[in-house]
Prior knowledge:
This protein is α/β, with parallel strands linked by helices. Helices cover 36% and strands 23% of the residues.
Amino acid sequence: MNIKIGTICVHQKIEFQMYRIAITGDPDYRGKRKIQELIQKFKDSFGNTVTIYNGGTTVGVDKVVKKTAIDLGLKFKEYNPAYTGYRMYSAMDESYYEGKEYHPTQLLERYDRLMRNSDNIVIFLKKHYDRLPRDLDHLIKKSKKSGKKIVFIS
């Protein structure tokens, strides 16, 4: 089943076939309205059958995604890194977070889990980069390798 949700950016048509959608992006991305409009379109198209996932950071895109999805009454889960502890919307069980101290690989592991447990991925990026943030670069490479549909919005 193909469900067209229409134009999200200028001349950009996007089709999503599933209902588990990961939305994440650069912590410095400032297009709050674009994020909110996209999530509203998902709600309008899929109703309460869509689940929104993100990487569990407390700033930038992830912060806006979480607030918007919850405010709209959508199902929401976050793959926050193990060292951050269990949260109300954590996608993993409480035992996953017990006694974990910070390790840099946890930042990449959360995106591995996000990618594996979503059907489509939306990544909000700034227009210009000298170099992508390491964790987003990791997510993009892994997603492409796995054949996941990725949509970039700037």
